[in-house]
Amino acid sequence: MSAITGTRIDEVLQKAVESGTMPNVVATATNADGPIYEGAFGPKAVGKPDPVTVDTLYRIASMTKMVTTVAALQLAENGVIDFDDAVAKYRPEFADLKVLDGWDGDEPRLRDPKTFATVRQLATHTSGLGYWFWNADLVRWEAKTGTGNTLAGTEDAFTAPLVADPGTKVEYGTNTDWLGLVVEAASGQKLDAYFDEHILGPLGMEQSSFHPTDQQRENLSAVHLRGEASGRWEATSVDWNAAPDWWPGGHGLYCPPSEYLRFQRMLLNNGTLDGTKILEAKTVEDAFANQIGDLDWPEAIATAEPPTTADFNAGPGYKFGLGLLRNTEDIEGMRRAGSGAWAGIFNTHFWVDRTAGVSGAIYTQTLPFVEPAVFQVYIDFEKALYASL
After folding, report:
1. What are the phi and psi torsion angles at 90 (to 5°)?
2. Is the pLDDT of residue 4 over 80?
C-alpha cells in the first residue's frame, strides 16, 4: 500500500477518530512516481459499520475549483479562452452585475463597477465576487432579495452583486462557478461532459462525478454535524442539490481520495500523468506563480455564518496563483515555499509541493469548515508526513 512507514501518520489519524475530533478521516500522499501513503479510519456514517477507505466517495467541494481552473487553462492553451479578456465576452450577463456599496436603511446601495472583471480575476478571486459565509453584506443581501446562494444550485445565484471593484482586493467567492460558465461557453460543452472528456477520463478518475449514481452513493461518506445536546458527531442528510440548474465548477464534484491523488500527481508532474498530458509544463508553472501582484490573500477572514465556517486564519505571506493558494515562505516541518493548495467546505484539503516532490490530502465530512480542532489534524498529518520522508 504505502512507500512510507506510516506508523506516526496512522497514530495521528486514528487518534483524531478515537478522540471524536473527526467522525472519519482518509489521508493520502504521493510523489512523482506514485502513492507513498494511504490511510483510512472511522465509519462512513457514525453509528453504521461500513468503514471509509481511500476509494470512499467524498464531497470535495471547493477542491473542485482547481479542476475547473485546469479546464479553463486547457482552453487557453488551445486559444479558445484569453485569461485577460473580460468575463462578459464569454458570459454577457456578467456585465449586468453591480457592486454592493453599502446600505441605505434596509435597501442595498448598488453602483457600476469601476472596471470590468477578467477571466484571470475569476481564477485568482480578485473579480470582486464573494461568498455569503465570509461576507456579512451578502448574507444580508440574500435575505433581502430572497435569492439562493451557489449551494442551492439555482440560477439566481448568478445575480449576486460584487462586493469590491475588480482587481482591488482578494475576496474569496463564486468566481470559479462563473469560470465554469466561461468554460461551457468557450467549449460548447456542459461542464460535466467537458470534465469527463478532457480531465477525469484521461486521468482515470472513473468514479469522480457531479452526479453519482445510486450505487455510487452507497459508497458516499455522510456529512456530520455535532449534536446540540451531545456535542458528538451525528450523520446527516446534508448534500448538494442533486438536480441543480447548472453544474457548479466551484464545488460540485464527488470524488474518491485515491482518484483526486491522480489529479494531484498530474500537477506534481508538470501537467502529465503516466504519459497522458493534461496541461503544458509552462501552464502549470503559471498556475503555481503569484498571479495577484502586490495584493495579498487575507491573513484572517471572519466568519459571517458560524455554523458553516469558523474564522479562517491563514497568517501572513500568502499569494494566489491560478486556482491555488501559494505560500511564499517555507513552513517549518511542512511544505516548501511556492507550494499550491486549496480545500473544501466539508474539511477536505490538499497541497502540492513541487520543490519537495510530494503532494498530500486529507478528507473528512464535517461542518463548520476549519473548526480549529479539525484543522489541527490536517497540520499534524502534514508534519508527520514530512517527518517520514
Report:
1. -100, -35
2. no
Number of domains in the chain: 1
The residues that are catalytic are 62, 65, 172
Domain that holds residue 221: 7-77+185-288
pLDDT digits (tens, 9 = 90+) for 148-157: 888 889 999 9
Confidence of residue 2 (pLDDT cuts 50, 70, 90): very low
* Whole-number Å distance between alpha carbons of 351 and 338: 11
Rounded Cα gap, residues 134 and 158, in angstroms? 17
Q: Taking phi first (over 0 means left), then psi (-120 to 50 degrees means alpha), and beta for anything else, what does residue 374 get?
A: alpha
Please return the burial class of 27, using the count of CB atoms within 10 Å of its CB with bins 0-12, 13-18 and 19+.
Answer: buried
- Specify if 274 maps to a domain: yes
CB 222 within 8 A of CB 44: yes
* CA dist list (Å): 267 to 188, 226, 278: 26, 35, 9
- Rounded mean pLDDT, 269-276: 98
Can you give the CATH number for the domain in which 44 is found?
3.40.710.10
For range 214-241, the mean pLDDT: 96
Note the pLDDT of residue 180. 98
Give the distance, in angstroms, between the CA of residue 280 and the centroid of all CA atoms in the same chain: 22
pLDDT at 285 over 80: yes
Q: Specify if 231 maps to a domain.
A: yes
The DSSP call for residue 86 is: B
Q: Does 342 reside within a domain? A: no
- CA 126, CA 116: separation in Å to the nearest integer? 11
CB distance 255 to 57 below 8 Å: yes
Q: Is residue 49 part of a domain?
A: yes
Distance CA 89, CA 288 (A): 26
Q: Provide the CB-side half-sphere exposure for 248 (13 A, CA).
A: 29
pLDDT of residue 7: 87
Report the predicted TM-score, pTM, of the whole model to 2 decimal places: 0.98
Span 168-209, pLDDT tens digits: 999 999 999 999 999 999 999 999 999 999 999 999 999 999
